[in-house]
């Protein structure tokens, strides 16, 4: 009898030890998060599932619709990969119309026709040939034997609608560099840099110049020298507006304080830069620099144009890798328009963003409670659930031929990207990878992790309306990620 009791006790020993130790690390982390006083008035949605078995590892309000911030980019970039493929490339063509005589005089126009490539002159692709797009255009014109141009330099980005600012974006986001919107001829990340000089505390900052120089640019506002370590200004003014209004503090007594903001008219900038470069090298342009979308007098002559140069973008997989690594809003908006082109044969913001949700519904996702209003997550009108994000991650892992490209776009804890400083010196370092998201009062992380027992887990955690700092919120969310890495069943 005693032997039987002893054997029973030994058999129950693992459960007795587990009970003495309390809940598993994931349960402890979830309890700590949901009971954290600074989250008590907010909204939390989290879920973690075994991608092989579908078993739920952790769950708390997994079907609550919350604002996902830049986790929206996962819906967008994964859909773009599925619809276009990892090897998809954009093409930008330079051509001429009219006749070229034997003395090199072109009696026609130079046309630069874009297809929506977001990488021309981009700081994120400085080692790609397209970074020096203007030199490549000039070289093609010279090699075509063109010595003078009787017509115009026409930049044609009309493959996209002209007005692509999502109507649900905040006014304070639209003028800043991270609020740049797509164009059929995007250039330099559709961004420019303003230079200011500051003096003693309380005095107005003095505007010096813009880089690149923009004709007709007008800067006004109330940028003031203050006792701050770095500038914290907001730039107001939508895309295409030459009037920019600045407000906020800048460091004291600096000769050059820089502020990045949206470039007013990317196609016109491309055309103007090329015209100025050609004139400076003795290739006289007798016409004007024109944005085809703005000039009602411009008559399209593309059908008879002679193509002299075609620039090809890096593959979509590389564009998406950097989109998610560095959370590039502009690139994500371009991916959204790709989805719109493929799914709805449209590049309007409303149809393109709606196409993303429709695509995922077609892949079996329960999209009840999902609303996507842009491609990048700046919009506070976006809502999604942790379950939907875990579904997306599991779908890409288990069913997609583009998983390798998608997975490579996720930032690894302890390595490059927006999650590089997270979960250091834990099992999650160089193990957990995913996408971060941050806008005002919103923090989100979703991705993959391998548990201590070898489970491949898809996970998502989103917190809205916390009342502590964003940094404190991140630290609490890290506990969930680390606990999943430590999980052993």
Q: How would you describe this structure to a colleague?
A:
By secondary structure, the protein is of the alpha+beta class. The protein has twelve helices and 21 strands. It has helices at residues 2-21, 25-34, 72-84, 133-143, 171-174, 266-280, 316-326, 329-344, 349-362, 386-398, 403-408, 470-486; strands at residues 43-50, 56-60, 91-96, 99-100, 105-107, 110-113, 148-149, 153-156, 191-197, 206-211, 218-226, 234-236, 243-251, 257-262, 284-285, 289-291, 306-312, 411-412, 433-439, 442-450, 456-464. The strands form five sheets. The chain has a six-stranded antiparallel sheet with strand order 2-1-21-20-19-18, sandwiched between helices. A hairpin with a 5-residue loop joins strand 1 (43-50) and strand 2 (56-60). It is globular. The chain starts with a helix and ends with a helix.
Structural key phrases:
single chain, 489 residues, alpha+beta, six-stranded antiparallel beta sheet, five-stranded mixed beta sheet, 21 strands, 31% helix, globular
């Amino acid at each position: 009898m005693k032997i039987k009791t002893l054997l029973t006790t030994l058999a129950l020993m693992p459960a007795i030890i587990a009970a003495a130790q309390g809940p598993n690390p994931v349960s402890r982390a979830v309890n700590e998060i949901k009971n954290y006083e600074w989250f008590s008035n907010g909204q939390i949605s989290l879920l973690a599932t075994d991608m092989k078995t579908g078993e739920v590892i952790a769950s708390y309000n997994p079907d609550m619709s919350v604002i996902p911030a830049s986790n929206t980019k996962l819906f967008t970039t994964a859909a773009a990969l599925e619809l276009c493929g990892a090897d998809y490339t954009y093409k930008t063509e330079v051509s001429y119309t009219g006749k070229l005589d034997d003395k090199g005089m072109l009696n026609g126009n130079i046309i630069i026709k874009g297809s929506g490539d977001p990488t021309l002159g981009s700081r994120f692709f400085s080692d790609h040939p397209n970074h020096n797009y203007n030199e490549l255009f000039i070289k093609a014109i010279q090699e075509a034997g063109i010595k003078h141009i009787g017509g115009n330099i026409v930049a044609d980005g009309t493959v996209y609608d002209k007005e692509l600012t999502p109507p649900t974006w905040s006014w304070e986001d639209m003028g800043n560099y991270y609020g740049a919107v797509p164009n059929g001829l995007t250039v330099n990340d559709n961004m420019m840099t303003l230079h200011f000089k500051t003096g003693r505390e309380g005095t107005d900052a003095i505007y010096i110049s813009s880089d690149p120089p923009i004709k007709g640019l007008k800067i006004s506002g109330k940028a003031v020298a203050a006792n701050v370590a770095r500038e914290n200004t907001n730039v107001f003014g939508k895309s295409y507006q030459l009037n920019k209004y600045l407000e906020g503090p800048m460091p004291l007594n600096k000769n050059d304080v820089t502020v990045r903001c949206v470039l007013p008219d990317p196609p016109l900038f491309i055309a103007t830069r090329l015209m100025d470069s050609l004139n400076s090298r003795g290739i006289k342009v007798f016409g004007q620099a024109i944005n085809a979308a703005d000039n009602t007098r411009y008559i399209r002559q593309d059908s008879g144009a002679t193509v002299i140069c075609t620039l090809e973008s890096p593959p979509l997989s590389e564009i998406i890798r950097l989109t998610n690594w560095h959370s590039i809003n502009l690139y994500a908006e371009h991916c959204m328009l790709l989805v719109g082109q493929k799914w709805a044969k449209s590049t309007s913001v409303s149809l393109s963003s709606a196409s993303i949700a429709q695509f995922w519904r077609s892949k079996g996702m329960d999209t009840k409670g999902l609303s996507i209003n842009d491609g990048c997550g700046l919009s506070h009108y976006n809502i999604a659930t942790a379950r939907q994000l875990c579904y997306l991650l599991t779908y890409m892992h288990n069913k997609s031929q583009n998983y390798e490209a998608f997975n490579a776009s996720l930032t690894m804890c302890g390595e490059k990207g927006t999650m590089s400083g997270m979960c250091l010196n834990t099992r999650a370092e160089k193990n957990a990878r995913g996408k971060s998201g941050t806008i005002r009062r919103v923090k989100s992380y979703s991705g993959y992790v391998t548990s201590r027992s070898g489970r491949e887990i898809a996970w998502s955690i989103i917190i809205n309306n916390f009342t502590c700092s964003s940094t404190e919120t991140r630290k609490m969310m890290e506990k969930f990620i680390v606990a999943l890495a430590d999980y052993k069943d």
